[in-house]
Structure formats: C-alpha cells, structure tokens
## 1
Amino acid sequence: MTGLRVVDAGETGALRSQALWHGIAETMTADSQPTLSFCRPTEPYVGLGYHRSLEELDAESCSRRALAIIRRRIGGGPVYIDDQQLFFQLSLPAAIAPARVDLLYRRFLGPAVEAFRTLGIAAELRGLNDITVEDRKISGTGAGRIGDGVLVVGNVIFGFPHHRMTDALAFPSDSQAAECLRLMRRHVSSLRDEGATGVTFEEAKETLTASYAAELDLTPEAETTTPDEEVAIGGWERRFSDPRWLAGPSTPRRTGSLVKISGDAWVWSTSDAGVSLEASIACGRIERLHVAGRGINGSSQRIAREIAGHSSDPTRVENTLHAHGIEGERIARLLGPGLRLH
C-alpha cells in the first residue's frame, strides 16, 4: 500500500452515483489500495437501505415527482438525494478495517469531522455515526461490507429541501407528517443553513482528501476506475434497475411507523385495539405525545400531556405510566416499542 487512491467521478446519474462505490468495494482484494471516491448526482432520487420496506415510501408521490427509488446494499433508512449533495466513500480491504462497527465509524468518520471543521463547520461525531453541529445532523453516513471490501460512506449537504424528503415518505396521518417535517427542519442541517455558503464542491473534495490521507498516512493519488470496476459498476446499475431487487428481502412487518430523523430525533406512530398513539422524541425528551380512539377519555389525554416534555428513557417512562393504572399501562404498551426501536 503506497498511496490513497482517489477516484473523482464528478457529476453522475442516479444509478451510477450508487453503483460507483458498490462496484469499487466489490472488486476489492486483500492487496487493494484504500480508495476514496467522490460523485455528485445530477438528478434527484430516493435511496433506501437494504433491509427497509418499500412501504416506508409514498410510491405515488415519488412517481408523481419523477423520483427513482434505489435500494442500496448497506443499511439505513430512506434518504432524499439531489445535486446539492456531494458523496464521499472510503473503500478498504476488509482485512485492514476494524471488525466492530463502532470502531469503524470512530476512525473513518473522524477525518470527515476534521474536514468539516476545516471548512468552518463546528462538527462533531455524535452517537454511533451522526456528524452534527450541536444537535443538527450535517452529514448522512453509513457503513457495510460488499465482498472483500468494507465501506464507510457519507455526504456533504450543501442545501437540503426538507419538504421534499417528507413528501417522499409514507405516513399514517397528516399530523405525523407535519411532526416529521418540524423535526427534520430542526435536526437536519446543511452548509447553507450553517452559513458556510462560500464552500465549493471542489474545496470540499480537496479538504476531505487531505483529511483522509492524513488519517491513513498515505499520499493521495488521483486515478480513474479500472476496467474490472466498470464491469462491477455496470452490474450494480442493472441490479438497481431490477424490480426484484427493489422489492427487497422479506422482513417482518413492524407494528408501527418509525421515521428516524437523526440519532437524537424520531417520530413514532402505532395503534392497537382502536387506540392510536403518535409521539415525537428529540434529544432525550418526548416533545409531543397524542393518544386518541375508542375508550380514550380525559384521563388518558391528561397522562399524555404530563408525559410530554419528560425523559424518553423507556424504563423511566414506563414506570411513570404504570403508576397511572390501566390508562397509563395502555399508553405504555403503545409508546414503549417506539422508545426502544430507534
């Protein structure tokens, strides 16, 4: 290993923007150079994690807006992607990557955090894999293994249309959609939102390259994709276009709807026996809790108002609710899974 291979694919279509790093990872061997790749999609689309259900997306809304849906091979929830995002991907031979995902993120998202700081953003790594400014996510990240290659991927968000993201998602109610949009505007940021309007795409690529080269103690070497990589990339483009791949693996249905905004913010909705519950959780607090339906009375609504604003720690919440007898226990059964699933 003599250098950090840097592959800048420039502006690409939606399929290639995902297939690029899948193909690079797939062709990795134990002797391959670490590769940092960049691309910027020229068209908007929605990305979906490998194990996630298509039912999380509003297929009609996506079709009406001409948004393709691409299921990636690594995990994570639905994301809206457009030309205001710069993708960066570090591909490594599995033999030199940490086996534990927390250590993988800590080491290989660290250079991205440093790059954001160089660009004037007070970024930090929060939780497992959120790059944030205070409690605002500034980069969507992920990791996984394809063949003998391990990936750590992220993006630099220059601007983000929060309403387009929520338009692409399926919600059981208008109120949950509104809560998701409210939390997203609060907890998903961008260079523009943080005042870094002078940063260019080229500057971001140069800064990320320097940061990753320093972390790996390797000299960056600009290269293009190899013929073998192009074959693999083409294979992934065809796979992403296959309706059977888009349908995804068979997974158990979740008895509720959870939309994760960040590691610190999500919305949860569920129902049982004619009673529905909607909750918004952010920064360790239940910001909003609403229950309605058959048998719900003023006592239940009072309990919900009391819980709103309290800690979202599942044990503490359930202990408090159980102290309210049958009404509290019913709310606990509906709310508990949403506090644990995120």
## 2
Amino acid sequence: MWLFRSALTVLVYTGLNLYIGARIFGFVRFVLPGCKGFVFWPLYALFACSFLLVFVFRLEHIIPLRQAGMYSLAAFVYLFLTLAVSDIVRVVIRITGRAAPDPRLSALMSGAALCLTLLILVYGAFHARDIKTRHYSLSSDKTIGVPGLRVALISDLHLGAAVGRKWTARIVNAVNRAGPDLVCIAGDIFDGDLELVRDMEGIAAELRRIKAPLGVYACPGNHDVDRSRLNEDPTGIQRIAAFLKESGVILLLDETASPAKRLYITGRRDARPIGLRQPRKTIAELAPPSGPRDFLILLDHQPLEFIQASAAGADLVLSGHTHKGQFFPGNLITRRVFKNSAGTHYGHWQNGVTQAIVTSGAGLWGPPIRVATDSEVAVIDIRFGEAGS
C-alpha cells in the first residue's frame, strides 16, 4: 500500500508539473521565440525537483539552495492554482463565444499567472515576518488566589535555516509588549537539525529577554528531535533541553510544575517525534491530584486529544502544530482534518469547563511564506472567580 501511494504521488506530481511547465514554456516562447525546449525543460525540471535534490543528497546546509527548494514548493501550488483558473476562464470565453480564439491568449494568461505567483510569494515572505498578536478572553469558576492571569502562548518557532535570531527577537518583543504573567511554548521550538541553526548563543540571549514573573514553560513538538546527533543521543532531546535551560525556559517532559499556588502546568511529550518511537504518559496519568480550586494548564503540541484532556480535568489546553495551514489553501485542509479529530486547527475550543487555544505559530516550516494566516503570539487573559485565600 505504501509503495502504491508513493508511486501515485510521483505520477500526480509529475503530471501536474508537465502541465505547469507546458504552460510556462508557451509564455516563454511568446516572449522569446527562439527559446528551445532542450534549454527550457532541464531548467524547469531543476526548479520542480530542487527541494527533492536538497533532501535526497543532504544539501540542507547550503542555505540558499534549501531556501530555493522551499520556495519552489509554494510556487508549484500557486502556479497550478492560477494556471487552472486561467484555463477555466479561457474555456468559458470560448464556449460563450465572447471572443474569437486567439493563440496569444493562452501565453498572456500564463504570463499573468506567473506574475501573480511571484507577487504572492513576495507578499507571503514579508507577511510571515510580521508577528501579530491575537487576544483571547476566557473565564473560569476556579479561584486560585488572584483575580486574573495573562498567558502568552507561542509555538512552532522552527528555529533553523529560515528562523534565526532576528526572527526570535521579533517574537520576544511581541511577547514583552503583551506583559504576560506566564509564557508557554507549545512545541516545535526547533526544525529538527540543530546544525542548521545559526547563532545559538544569540537566540538563547533573546529568549532570556522574555519578561514573565511566573516563568517560561515549554513542551516538545514532533520536530524537536536533534536528528544530527541521534547516534549520540537516541532520545534526540538532550541538546534541546540543555539549550532551553540556558535560555531560561523550563522544559516539561511528561512533567508537571506549579509556578504559583493552586496553578499547575503539565507538559506532554509529543505523540509522534519525527523518526523516533517514544512512549508517553496518558493525560490521565499526567494530571496531578487537584482540588476544586486548582487550575491546570496542559501543554500538548498536537491538538488531537482535547476530549481526553477534558475527561482528565484539564482547565486549559494550549497547542500549536497546525500552523493554520500556513498558506492558502493549506488552511482549508487543516480545518477539515482537525475538525474530524474532534478538535480545532486554530483558535478557541471548549467542552464543559475545559477550554483550549490552538495558535498558528510564531515561525514557519517548509516554504518561508504565510498567505491567509499569520505568524502570531496568542495572548490569553483568564478571569477567575472571586479570589480565594
């Protein structure tokens, strides 16, 4: 079955690229009549397969090549969408007889699709770097001794080839502007290969600038695996844990901390760390014994077990992972997938007294763009019942 699916994926991808390439070649021949197929097609094949070349031949450390490969993935999506729309328009024009068939129309529409794709990529690249702040106001009948609590939630930094110190500084600035009591990082702090991260000490210094009286807590995500050192550390987490400790971040690996009286934070290991099979405790096993006034925050990278969290008595679940699809039409896909998983791909979720917030993430993975989604810091204001003693 796996082999069949892989073969089908290759056939579909190849077919779509032949369609895109033929349309672009028509435009190129319109602009440069002397252009030959034996020149165009090898160059286009290099573009279409650049991301595969990077990963198959382990060329991730050549950052410009890796970035070009990631942009090619996004370009493929938008070229296909814009060319498909242009073909539909051409068919409608031909069927309705609103204009006589013109061989130049196809080339001109292909050129327009190419220009629109370039504009989308440029917009997406700049938009991804603009860190937004999303505010939520929640209430709880619990009484933990204070009238309210402000939590800043960040997730999916994906520190690596695309996200470095400058990006981290923008995230930290957005967090500090919010003035949180507590900061939670819901996984995917790294992008898997720590060797791709430049200026680790500088990034640690930026994270130490976070101002939160009750501390900074994190759980790992599926990308938080130090794949470059698995021969030395089969868990893939030791260097990451050391980095976070140096950065002033408390990493919770199926553990619970109590930053204040009657306030608990539990951080789960990830369900599917990339390339590893590691057991983790159930939410019921992790939930600490709590009184009727205790408030439990659960950090769980993937928003897949909200019902179990509700059954275990968690008051607030904080997750990321989905990126809200990162760029259109990915947001439509993640919406469907996580709705079917009895959760949500983004925003607020509630079941009884249990509430959850899923953030779109502060960084990004793969194509370094965002379209129809934001890089964000989620700021959550929780209002409690009358303050108890």
## 3
Amino acid sequence: MLAYIIRRLLYAIPVLIGVNLITFMLFFVVNTPDSIARMQLGAKRVTPAAIEAWKAERGYDRPYFYNAAEDGPNRFTNTIFFDKSVRVMAFDFGRSDDGRSISRDILDRMGPSLALAIPTLLVGLLVNITFALLLVFFRASYIDTAGVVLCVFLMSISSLFYIIGGQYLAGKLMHLVPISGYSPGWDSIKFLILPVIIGVVGGIGAQTRWYRTLFLEEAGKDYVRTARAKGLSELRVLFRHVLKNGMIPILTGVVVILPLLFLGSLIMESFFGIPGLGSYTIDAINKQDFAIVRAMVFLGSVLYIIGLLLTDISYTLVDPRIRLS
C-alpha cells in the first residue's frame, strides 16, 4: 500500500508540471503583459511609461521562458514562467496582481465554500439515495416510471434556471431568505439555505438515475434472490443487502470529490454573492489576474489527484477483495 501511494504521488509530479505549463501558455495566448497592465491600471489613457513600470514591479517585463540576456541557469530562472508558475509547485502562491496574499485569500475564503459545499453534498446524498431506493422498491411500476421521467425532466433544466427561479420565488416574492450576500458565524445560515436547496434540487435528476441504476444492478444478483428465497422481506433485502453493496461505488464517487469541496461552486457563489473560492476564481478571470488563476488551477489539480488516490484507497477499505500493490 505504501509503495503504491508513493508511486502515485511521483506520477503526479509530471502531471502538475504539465498543468502549470498548459495554464501558462493558454493564459498568455489571449493576454499579453501589456494588456494585463492596462486592465490593472484601470485608466483610459495609460502612458507607456506607466505600463512598463507596472510590468517591472510585478516581474512581467521579462521573457516568457528563455532570457538570452542572462548567463547560466538565470536564462531559465529569470523568466515569467519560472517566477509565476514554477514556485507554485512548492505551494508558494505569491501575491495577486493587486498586491494581496493569495494564500491568505484562500484561507479566508475556504470557510464560506465549505459552508455551502458540505451541506449540499450531505443533504444531496440523503435525498438522492432515498429517492433511488424508493424507485427500486417500486421498480417496473407506474411510480418507477414517473420517477424516471421526473429525473429526466430535472436533468433537462439548466442550473441557472434553478438559481434565478429560486431567487425570484423565495427571495423576491415570498421574502423567506435573502437573495444574495453572506455573513460569518451562525448568521450565514439564512444566506446558505436557498443555495443549498437549489444545489440539492439541481442534482436530483442525474444522481438519482445513477443511484437507481446501481441499486437495480445489485437487486438482480444471485445473493439478493437467495435472500428473498429465504423469506426476507423486500424492505429488509433492499436496506440490508442492496443498499450496503450499492454504496461501494457511491462511496468511491463521493471520496473523489471530497477534496474538491474546498474549491467551492463557481456559479452558485457568484450568483449568491458568497465570498468563497469559486467566486474568487471567477473574479480573477474577469480581472485577468494570472497569479490567482494559476494558483487556483494548480490547487484544483492537486486536490483532484488527492481525490483519485483516496478513491483507490477507499476501494480496499470497502471491498477486501481489492489489494493495492
């Protein structure tokens, strides 16, 4: 097991280097240091001297990958790529283009993201698994057919419709909760109720259909038929056998997304004004702040790799037949 973990972590190094390189190239294909300087300075008429001063202050006045004016290793280290991307590999995120500490911003915004993501995940699991089991219990009946049709209908609706419709009904018409905003502490609950409900409702269609497929596959296996032949009730078979074994792929699917909960929801946080990492990333893209975009893409890659590793490990915990070597 230990050798497998070390090997996977070593495999992650070239992946992260490639992600850093691709992110850097894609960003500077559509942006130049001059255009970034003009946007950050925010003036309609920016003098060339002001642009050059801004670039020199933040290290954008150097070549991208190779600095012919330097000698030895400095030809590669005294470049924009090394200064802006290579340091990230050591989790040195540096500062944003407006001078803020990116690491501090991430720590400050992680809390609101988790406050939204964790309840959405837990409530969503409870609702979707319960609904899927209900459809499996009434499989091949009108209830099952109606449930599948409802799931397909819910899947066909854009998430933006749920957000805008929920804000209009619950916030504007009924005045039950605030439309947007955030407040730290227990006051945050009133701001999180609506986005959590919308997040759960928006995921019912796809998740319930997937869970239903998993449970139906288990319900048709020999050990389930044997349990029925022994006289066990359908409810007992469903909860004692089908649910238990069907939770293996569900558990591994949840484990892979657990680390990504730190990154927040890009759309949900932006629409509801929640100061999490999702809205932080969107704001950085709009401002063309490469330092923040680079840090968030790298952090997302690291968390995704950790999620895949935890998924493999969780397989061995829930299924003793699997061994990692």
## 4
Amino acid sequence: MTDSVNTRELILGILLEVETEKNYSHLVIRSVLEKYQYLDKRERAFITRVSEGTIQRKIELDYIIDQFSRVKTKKMKPVIREILRMSVYQLKYMDAIPASAACNEAVKLAKRKGFASLGGFVNGVLRNISRNLTAVTYPDEEKEPVRALSVRYSMPEWIVEQWILDYGSARTKEILRASLTPAPLTIRTNLSRITPEALRERLALEGVTAQPLEKEKYPELSYAFAISGFDYLNGLSCFREGLFYVQDISSMLVAEYAAPKPGDRCLDVCAAPGGKSIHLAEKLDGTGRVVARDLSEQKVALIEENIARCGLKNITAECHDATVYDETQKEAADVLIADLPCSGLGVLRRKTDIKYRTSAADCAALAALQRQILSVVCGYVRPGGTLIYSTCTINRAENEENAAWFAAEHPQYELVAMRQMFPEEQAGDGFFIAKFKRKADV
C-alpha cells in the first residue's frame, strides 16, 4: 500500500474521530475520501474496508486482543487501542495483507503518533495474535448463547437479546450474519428524464456496471439497479445530471406502497434527504404537489439540493417540526409519508457504529416519539387518503407494536398492509412499512 499519504494513518484518524469524538462513521469516512479523492482507487478501497471493518467487528476484535494482552482494551490509550484493532482486523479478515506488514506498520504508526515506548508492546501483542489466531476460543453458544452471538457477530448483547425475544434464535442469527455483509449500492432511474435502458447504457459508457434487480423478488422495481465498478458518485456525469437517485431498495418500496394517483397532494413529514418525496413526485409525472418537510434548515437545504439535481417542479421543501400540529395542513393530504426517526437497526451494514450508540432506553424513547408524531400528522390526511408509517429498524416496539397501537388509538384509520423486511431476505436494508387508509366516512 502506497504511503505517500499514509493510508493507515488516515484510517487511525477515522477510528479516533468515531470513537472519541462520537462522529458518525459513514460521514467521517465520506469526508476523508472526499478530501483525498486523488488517491488511487485501491488505496481508497483499503481505507474504506479497514475503517468500516474495524468499527463493524469491534466487539470481536477487543475480545481477541484481550486474550493476548496483559493490558485490556478498556484500559489502553485510545491511539494504541485503535492501532491494535485495525491491525487485528487486517490479520483476521484480509488475507492479502501479510502478517508481517500489518505488525510492522502498526509499530511504525505507534511511533509516528508519539508512542515509541509502546512499540514493543504493540509488536508483541500482534505477533502473538498472528501466531495463534486459529487457536482463539470463543464463548460457548450452548452455555452463553447471547454472549456467544454478541462476540461472534460484534453486536451488543442487549440487541441480541431483544432480537431473540422478538424473532427467535434462528432469525436472529440470520440478521446478525446479514449485518456483517457488504450492502449493495442501489439506484432508482429518474423516469422524468431517462428510461432505465438508456440509463444503463449511459452508465456503461462511464465504466459502471448496472445490474437489474431480480424480477421475481422486485417486480415493481424495474427502474432500479445495483451499481458497481466506479470510484465515487460525484465523478459520474449521470449522477451530476440527476439521471438517477441513490436509494435503498426497501426505501423505494415506500412510494410503491403509497401508490399516488395523478394530481394527488402528498406530504412527507420527516423527509431528509428527500429520496421518498422525490420518488413520489416522479410517480406523479408532473402533476399534483409534494411537500417535503424536516426539522432543521440544514436538512431542508439537503432536500432542496437533491430536488434541484433531479429537476422536478412539483415538489417543494419546508422546515417544520413534525411534533407540532399545523392547522394549514388539516385533511389536506391524499398521501402522507411518516418515515420517522428510529433506532436504525436495519441499516447496520451502511452505518456500522449505530449499534454501539443506541440503547434499549433510546429505543423506548423513539417508540414514544413515533407515537407522538403519528398522533399529530394523522390529522393531515383527508378521508379516503393514505398514511404510510415506516422506519429503517428491526424492532417490534418501534414497528409492529406501534402500528397496532396506532390502529387501536385512531379507529378512523384501517391497517391495510404491513411488512417487516429483514436484510438477509433481500438485497435491501432491514425496513418496516405499515400502510393505513383513512376511512371515508369517519
């Protein structure tokens, strides 16, 4: 790996920013890759792989290190702890990196960061791990099922416990396996500007492979592709021209469930970055109106940026707090999208550090906030209209239980469809959609 800009030093910086400054991993990695766009594709891929992998596997990596180090990871200096984590990740999960290189580079990095006195400690721990990786013992799944799954799949124990309670052990293992697999990058054709066939040809000219989705699994998503073979999105003229929108498959299904009709008025109450709102606007084919709202001016600016790139005229963005009732919207929406703040446990493949940031108490607070928002925004739907409640999480309290609560508390609404999507079942994220119809005579 070329060290003109030391890639391992960049990775260490990413890990420290995520761990000590509590910044979100996907944003930190994106920022570094944008700053160092001039690095070749292989170096950028190395930065992404080691950064994401180290964060993703942190619990397991600490478990391994603690078996071979007299100083446990919790007691280590942050710089040394992150150097060891990223090095053990390379030793265990990157066969192309020679063990000697991983160990030597770790020692150099420790010295470069002012910890020359700990170079021998770093070297000793890593050499010992390297020699004995196949001999690492893991918790016994028969005796300690929750701890065993937590260590093996680097998932906090409380999440493992909750998923076993909600979905059973077999399903939980599948979710855990899927949470460690790479997430595909999927896009949706901007049908107001180009056909899927023409987009695929344009992408091919830029060296991008665009793979259509399985028709049997996603018959309604004939306009979507999984793309690969490119360096970064802003380098693609197709992206800059707004010919496609990056969106997860599960998220695309929200507009399909909403099924807006020509001329409909649609309201998205928590819309940033705007993918679902823009999808609705495209489906309206120049008719109707979509209002995309979010809490902060910064989020609204992001929605407006995406609207402008996609070139749509029947959509506007507004700043509004979804917990505050807006009398001007009373019974004004034919379609309302409530894609509400959630624990995000369905998107762990993309946002690897979410699992370490959230707690059972956070999930309970979010479930309560979701109920509060639903009780406010349900007044915006006209009789006969549609309300879509969705989240990007895998948690019964935030999903099925909230849908049941809403149906019971608001009898003017009828639950007509409900779906919990799991990441191991499909290419998309873990996601939940509940579709309600407001009764015409209530």
